Amino acid sequence: MKKEIKESFKLINGKEIPSIGFGTSLIVGDECVNNIKQALEVGYTHIDTAAAYKNEEFIGKAIKESRIPRENIFITSKVWKDSMGYENTMKSFNNTLKKLGLDYIDLFLIHWPSNKSKELNIETWKALEDLYKSGKVKSIGVSNFLENHLKIILDNCEIMPMVNQLEFHPGLIRKDTIDFCKEKNIILEAWAPLGKGKMLQNEELIRIANKYNKSTAQICIRWCLQNEVIPLPKSSNIDRMKQNKEVFDFEISEEDMYFINNMEFFAGSDMDPMTFN
Ligand code: A2P
Fold first, then answer.
1. Is the pTM of this model over 0.85?
2. Ligand 1 mean position to 198 CA, how many Å?
3. 37 FRET partner, CA 20 to 30 A, in 70, 142, 259, 265?
4. What CATH number labels 8-194+228-236?
């Protein structure tokens, strides 16, 4: 029976999150405004940004110019490492809101865990909890948190993280963290679901893509979804943006899922959450 993938996933607080998002790192200025306007035009309803991407104001401009009603767009942003701690996080959030030109955001994440200070992670989380309670943020979560980082939050939180965003693509699966999040009902998101484009030339993935008459990008994206992970692909090209959303009309077999789940292409990421400070 075909595995049904819904257009949105439900977070533990009952809010819906669109099951494919659009990644926005590394684009700024007019290029960013045009890119996001195109993404909205072809039907992306979920945009992922961060203070560190330095493009929130351009994304805000694109949203405004698109004239799409605010409630039809799901916006995520993140607090960067240099703004952690309770007061700094509050300040950073207010800047994010101002730059985006919005009065609330849908999801706010801690961008990276601090490996130096457990307290800093806890204090930052406390700020996110207060923002959630104020209604300025509809859901809260973390990014690049491995099991050990998550445990610190879970042991000290009043409100559970609803999302964990990780680098995730064929060849880079942090199985322990993924299993832990699923057990705790934390929804997973994948940044760089195409391995920053590098996975697209992988011969095994090309072989599988040919079998389904799909592109390797579509295989990577559908593979995320069948693993119940929300992919956040990026593209600067409108045809590829469209292609990356056309993944609901086929299913990767159990056998091929198993094969891709066990592919070891990269030994690891160049931004390992245990060592990236
Ligand atoms: P482009 O912007 O020219 O489309 P990731 O999302 O893993 O970071 O990967 C992004 C990279 O993958 C970008 O270089 C992007 O290039 C490329 N890319 C995105 N979608 C596709 C696609 N459908 N086919 C080929 N390359 C793609």
1. yes
2. 9
3. 142
4. 3.20.20.100
